[in-house]
Amino acid sequence: MTNDERRDYWRRYARENAKYERNGVVHFRRAIAETLKPVIELASQQGAAAALASVDVLISRPFIEQAFIEFYYYVGTAHKAWCQAQFNKRKKKDRGLPPIDLKPVAAASADAGFGAGFFNPAWLQRLKNLVYGLDVASRVTSIANTLKKKLRAVLGRAVKEEVRPSAMARRIQNEMGGKFSEARARLIARTESTYVANVAAKQQAIETGLKLVKVWIDTRDSRVRDTHWKNPDPIGFSDKFKVGDALMDHPGDPAGGAKECCNCRCCVAYLPADDHEDIFPKEPIF
Question: Where are the alpha helices (DSSP H) in 107-133?
Fold first, then answer.
C-alpha cells in the first residue's frame, strides 16, 4: 500500500469514525449524567457531607454498562458493513476476486441493546462477549472510579465552604457537567470506537474467506504517536504489530494498554496476500 493509498483509506475511515464518535459522545454523556443523578439528589436534600459519605454506594455501573452495549452494537454493526462495502468497491475485473455478500443491516436505535434484527448471530455473540469480557469490565470500573474521585474533590470543597444543599445541584453540574463531561465522553467514545471498529474490520476480513495480510494505517498528522507510524509494511493476518513495548493485533487492541489505546485514531486494512497494491480505488475526499 503506497503512502497515497494509506492516506486515502484513512480519510475515508475517518469520515465514518467521526460518525461513530459523535454517537458515542451522546451515549456516554447521557450515561455520566444518569450516574451522577443520585449524588446530586442526595446533596440537594441532605448536603455535601451526606453525599460525600455515600459516593461509593451511589455511583454504580449500570448506566455506563448500558452505554457500552448500545455503542458496541452501533459501531460493530455499522463498521462491519462499511468494511464489506470497501471490499466490494475494488476492481473485480482486475483482481479476479469474488464479490463479498453485503447483507442488510438493521439500524441500531438508542435503546436497541443487542436486540432482534442483527444480521449475523455469530457476530452478535462476539460483541456480547466483548462487552461482558474482562477488558471492558475493567474500563467500566475505571470510568466509575474517575467519577468517584472527581466527585469526592467537588464535594470535599463544598463541605469546607459550607455550601448550602439548595446550591449543591448547580455546584456539581458546573464542575462535572459541561467541559468535564464532554471531555470524558469524547475520550471514551474515541477510544472505544477505534477498538470496536478494528475488531469489526477483522471479523469482516475473516468472512471473506481470502488469504489476507493486514496494514496498520496511522493518521499521518502531527498528533500521531511515534509508536503508531512505525509499522509501514504489511504483516501476516495472524501476526502482531510491534507498537512501542506492546504486541498488538490491531489499533485499539487492549494489549497495548492505555498508553497505546487512549485517543488512538488509527485503523487497520486487510488486503489480499498475493496482491495488496492499489486494492482500494480512490474516491473524492470532501
Answer: 121-131
Pick 128 or 38 by higher pLDDT. 38
> What is the distance between the alpha carbons of residues 66 and 78, in angstroms, rounded to a whole number?
18
- Within 10 Å of residue 20's Cβ, how many Cβ atoms? 22
Q: How many residues does the chain have?
A: 286
Cα(67)–Cα(187) distance, integer angstroms:
14
Q: For residues 194 and 251, is the Cβ–Cβ distance under 8 A?
A: yes
Place of cell 447483507: 103
Beta bridge partners of 272: 212
The closest of 14, 2, 1, 5 to 219, measured between CA atoms, is 14
- Mean pLDDT across 273-284: 52
- Give me the torsion for CA of 250, 32, 187, 78, rounded to 10°: 50
282: phi then psi, degrees, rounded to nearest 5: -75, 150
Tell me the average pLDDT across 88-110: 47
Segment holding 170, helix H or strand E: helix 168-176
Residue 267 has phi, psi (to 5 degrees) of -140, 170
Q: Name the residue type at position 129.
A: N
Q: End-to-end distance of the chain based on CA atoms, in angstroms?
A: 22
CB atoms within 10 A of CB 65: 18
Is residue 282 classed as helix, strand or coil in its secondary structure? coil
Look up residue 247 and give its amino acid: L
| pLDDT tens track for 101-151 | 444 334 344 334 444 344 577 787 888 888 788 788 888 999 999 999 999
**pTM for this one?**
0.80
Per DSSP, the chain holds a count of helices (H) and strands (E) of 10, 5
